[in-house]
Design goal:
- It holds the Pfam family DUF6169.
- InterPro entries: DUF6169.
- The chain is an alpha+beta fold.
- The protein has a single domain, classed as Aminopeptidase (3-Layer(aba) Sandwich), CATH 3.40.630.
- It contains four helices and seven strands; from the N terminus they run αββββαβαββα.
- The longest helix is centred in the C-terminal third of the chain and has 15 residues.
């Protein structure tokens, strides 16, 4: 993985039901969660059962506020792990609760580039008003063309 070439090691994560938790060196606790995303697509679409919504959040603050590259590495590792099954697709919706969704989208795009995810993973970014969503799937996904063809329908459904 690209992490190793950058000298970065993901934090050890604890697997819960549909999520993972990890603790940073400063004591902050993060949750990475996966929920069913099939409802965004028609049941007739073959890939719908393989869609998950993905997100992450701090659940408790650490002792210091500082940039920690291992947080990004840990999150990206779980994205890659989920996409090990070439049929899977992830949706990342940038949280709007504090009106910082554009900052979250920029940060996520930086991670996508930094860790060279685009070598194996296609990412399609859509916006629905102020809602920013990234769809990610492997280039060898057997539903790739069906997924790509569904994007105008998704945009129309949510605009």
């Amino acid at each position: 993985m690209i992490f190793n070439s950058l000298g970065l090691v993901p934090y050890e994560s604890q697997h819960l039901r549909n999520s993972f938790k990890f603790k940073t060196d400063t004591g902050a606790i993060y949750e990475i969660y996966f929920t069913d995303g099939s409802s965004y697509f028609s049941e007739a679409q073959g890939f719908a059962p393989y869609v998950a919504m993905f997100g992450f959040r701090p659940t408790s603050a650490g002792t210091e506020k500082q940039r920690d590259a291992r947080i990004a590495v840990t999150i990206v590792k779980h994205i890659c792990d989920y996409l090990e099954d070439e049929r899977n697709m992830l949706m990342y919706v940038c949280d709007q609760h504090d009106r910082r969704e554009e900052q979250r989208a920029r940060l996520f795009n930086q991670w996508f580039l930094k860790f060279q995810l685009g070598e194996k993973i296609q990412k399609i970014d859509l916006s629905f008003g102020e809602l920013l969503v990234s769809f990610m799937f492997r280039y060898d996904n057997p539903f790739r063309y069906e997924i790509e063809a569904s994007m105008p329908d998704v945009r129309e459904k949510y605009n």
